[in-house]
Each structure stands twice: as C-alpha cells, then as structure tokens.
Amino acid sequence: MHIAEGVLPPEALGAGVLAAAAGVAIGLRRLDEDEAVRAGVLSAAFFTASFIHIPIGPASVHLVLTGLMGLLLGWAAFPAVLVALTLQAILFGMGGLTVLGVNTVIMAAPAVACYHAFRRDLAQRRGPGLAVRGFLAGALTVALSVALLAGFLLTAGREFAGLAQALAAAYIPVIIIEGGVTAAAAGFLVRVRPQLFAPREEISGHAPPG
Amino acid sequence: MEPSHTYGGWLDRVDPRVRLLAALAFSILLAMETRWAVLGGAAAVACAIAVTASMPTGAFLKRLIPVNIFVLGLFVFVPWSTEGTPLWRAGGFAYTAEGLELAATVGLRANAIVMTAGALLGALDPLTLSSAMRRLGAPPKLCLLFVLSTRYIGLFRQEYLRLFRAARVRCFEPGANWRTLQTQGHLVGALLLRSMDRADRVLAAMRCRGFHGELPAPPGRPWSIHDAAFAAGATIVFAGVLWTP
C-alpha cells in the first residue's frame, strides 16, 4: 500500500507532508509517557503483521491491519505509521523519503476514521454485532486507503487512471482478508481484554502486568 | 533488528546527519526533475557511491526490487491511458508512444531517487538514523517510537513464528478460507496482547532507570573534514543541477 517515488507532482507531495505532519503532531500530543512506550511497541507488532502472508491460489497477500491499529491507537496511528514507513523505506527501499507524507496519510487517515467510527461501543458488543463491526473496521479502512491511493495517483494526471483502476481491483481480495482477520483479532481482544477498548480516561488503570 | 554493522567504505566517515540531509535534498530535487540526462546521471552516481562506498552490490540491487515492480505496472498500464501516436491497438484502446515515454521518465526518476536514498542511507542501521533525526530536531517522542519499533520488530517476528509453528503442529493448514483468516486473526490478537504486556514491563524497567517520557539525546560526533568535504561536494552538485538549463 505504497505510492512509489517519482510519480506524484510536487503539489501532491507537499500536501501529503503537511497533512501527515498535522496528524503526527496531534497523535504525539495525545500520547502520554505510558502510551508512548505502548504505541512504540505496538507499532513494532503491526510492522511484524506485514510479514504475515495469506495464500490466495498461487499468490499471497500480506496483512496491513491499519483498521486494528486505528482501533487500538486512535490518532497515535499517525506517528506509528510514519515510523513503520520510514523503517520500510530505509531497510527495504519500499516507498521513499519524498512520498513519506503521502503514504502516511494514505494509511493513517483511514485508521483514525476507523477509530472514530467503530471504537466507541466496541467493548460492549459480543457475537455477530462484534464480528460485523470488526469486519467493517478492517475492510473499510483498507478500502478507504485504496481510494486515497488511487486519488493521489490521479493527481499525477489522466495517464495514471488505468494503473489506479488496476491497483484498486487488485486490492479487492486484500479488503476482504483484512476484514476477516480484523474481525477475528478484534473479537479475540475484546473478549480477552475489553479494557483495551474502554473510553480514553479509563485506559490508565489498564491491564495487569504480564 | 540486526546489530549495527558497517561495510567500511568511505561513506562511513561522513556524519549520518549530513547523509540524511543530502538524501532528503537530492530526493526532493530529483522528484521535480524531468531531464533524462540528469536522472540517468543521478542513478549512475548513486550506483557508483553504493558499490564503492556504502553497501554490498547484492544488498543494493535487492532494494531496487519493490520500486521496479511498480515501474513494471507503469509500463503495462500507463501507455493505454495516454493519448498520442498508437504503437499497438487492442479493443478500442491504443498503447501510445507518448505513454511509453511518460512511463520511462517516471520509471527512471523513481529508480534515480531510490538509488540515491539507498546509496546514502541504506547502510545506516535504524538506531544511528534515529539519533541523526533526533539531532536534526525531530520530536523526541517520535524518535522514542522509532527506537522502540526498531528494537521489537525482530523479537515480535520470532514470537509470531513461534505462535504460527504451534498452530501448524496442531494441524493448521493456511489456505484461502475463513478458517485461515480466523486463525491468523487470533494469532495477531495473541501477538498484540503479548506485545502490550511486554510494553508495560518495558515501561516499568525504563522508569527504574530514570525514564521520564523522553530518552536523553544521543551524543553526536564532532564535525570532521570528511563531513565538510562531502557537504561541499553535494552542495556544488545540487546547485549545478538546479541552475543548469
């Protein structure tokens, strides 16, 4: 879920940097010292999830899990995504420095939207209601990211319309897979430790030490 | 993460901050560049720096794979959506020469940028990079996230593989079905729970060692003749590209 270097016009790159900087600033301001450590460790866990491959026929797709990230981290998804993308760019040459802003927005903005749409009453849900919300959180977050990716690609010109459509089509199985995995993971976490999804002010009295 | 290692090339003598700033400046410059000569020249210089001074050739080439999968997509799709002189026709669409040229320009630009950043930064380990970012004024909390992520990615990968092996031993066969998604979801859930418990222990341990929401700034290295020479050279090349018509 990256736009590569060299494609987008400077205006789009600049807009991405500004939007990402605003999101990261909000995310960092909302993290106190406990949550900063937790967000750092969680962002490593989400990075690990991108190594998990689900086979589809002869090919396979890897997990993104930005929906789950949004549910657990809220606005802190912005700095967490920025950190993960920076590491991917430096270690593997995926994405790159000039597209860091755009790619952060593509992945983190839908995660924050997911947080606002689904987090509020998740801890009270059980059964099908929980599964459906988990599925929608995972699937819609990735769908929104694909829409943003296609939209940014179109700022480079009409010539990229075909590529944008092909990418969007290629992501349809990813959207379904993300929905299924997020539903299972969110359901698991809500049942095992519902206080993770409690309203913000109750979080500080959290989990027993492991 | 792997322990920090250097390849012993001359680039190691240049301060990571200088390399980071140079990579950023040249990435931005190249992102706005359309001249093939400049893009090709940048790619050639970047390759030369990478193989002589910063990293093994194999590692450098491996970094170019992700961007070139995207570039392949450009060549397959962009010329069909571009108006101009048709080279082939199929079902009312035309693969145009103008589109091919656009794909080639973007592909060359993408490679030039990735090569430049790879040559300058690819051999730096993430912790060195994080301390360079910190000393260039990045928010301390962001650098804390960066350092912690770097520390735990390798560990969580091992942990996930352990959970995955445990599932395999219990006859889990991954495939394109709901059972796989559910099982992987539960593995991810377990991984996240363990990572959050670990975060609480890490925080407690850090507090015992005087942590108050911020890590102390890492010591920098003094400005050296190598930094000055590299910075001067980079500035001259940058200005040259900017002001050549």
Shape of chain B: flat
The gyration radius over C-alpha positions of chain B equals 23 Å
The average pLDDT score of chain A comes to 89
* SSE pattern of chain B: HHHHEEHHHHH
Number of helices, where a helix is a run of at least 4 consecutive DSSP H or I residues of chain B: 9
Q: How many β-strand stretches of chain B?
A: 2
Kindly give the count of domains of chain B: 2
Q: Tell me the number of structural domains of chain A.
A: 1
End-to-end Cα distance of chain B, whole Å, is: 45 Å
Major beta-sheet overview of chain B: 2 strands, antiparallel
What would you say the CATH architecture of chain A is? Orthogonal Bundle
Helix content estimate of chain A: 55-70%
Strand order of the largest sheet of chain B: 1-2
> How many runs of DSSP E, i.e. beta strands of chain A?
2
CATH class of chain A: Mainly Alpha
Largest beta sheet: strand ordering of chain A: 1-2
Biggest interface between protein chains, with counts per chain?
A: A-B, 79 and 92 residues
Low-pLDDT ranges of chain B: none
